[in-house]
Amino acid sequence: MFPLFLVYLAEYTINLGLHPVLLFPLPSTPFNHYRAFYPTYNFLYQAGVFVSRSSTPFLRIHRLYPPSLLQVSNFFLLASQAALGWMPDRIGFWIVSAVVVWEGLLGGAVYVSTFAEIMDNVQRDEREFSLAATSVSDSCGTSIAGFVAMAVEKSICAWQVRRGRDWCRRL
Q1: 87 vs 89: CA distance, rounded Å
Q2: For the segment 40-82, what is each residue's pLDDT rounded down to a tens digit?
Q3: Domain count, the chain
Q4: What is the extent of the structural domain holding 56?
């Protein structure tokens, strides 16, 4: 259950707290408005989730901690970009977009693999309880991430403004 909690905590903190502040100069992106970044990142994330949740017949993850820790790494990578802006402007958006797809792939894979592992490895009479208990993990991860993300977005936006990048205020 902890890998699912961890992946959802990292994933939804990224989606809710970092996507709104992962901004680049408009001339270096395909956008005309800063508000276009957020729905684009969300579409890319959902595309990754869709692909990975559809891949169980072909690819199955049995060790769930490594992809969960990779998701935490995604959080730190994207948080450092949002705070420090270290990626080159001309390709930064494209790099972040690739990481966001990867984020969706990891999250969807851990989700579907967790429940597939329960279906395959838990005795039939204990399966319903196991599925219900595991569902609490993703709900708790998502809920806690919502609170964490509020602080993350606010603090990173304020940090960006202090450093002369007020794009997060232009949404």
Answers
A1: 6
A2: 999 999 999 999 999 888 888 999 999 999 999 999 999 999 9
A3: 1
A4: 2-169
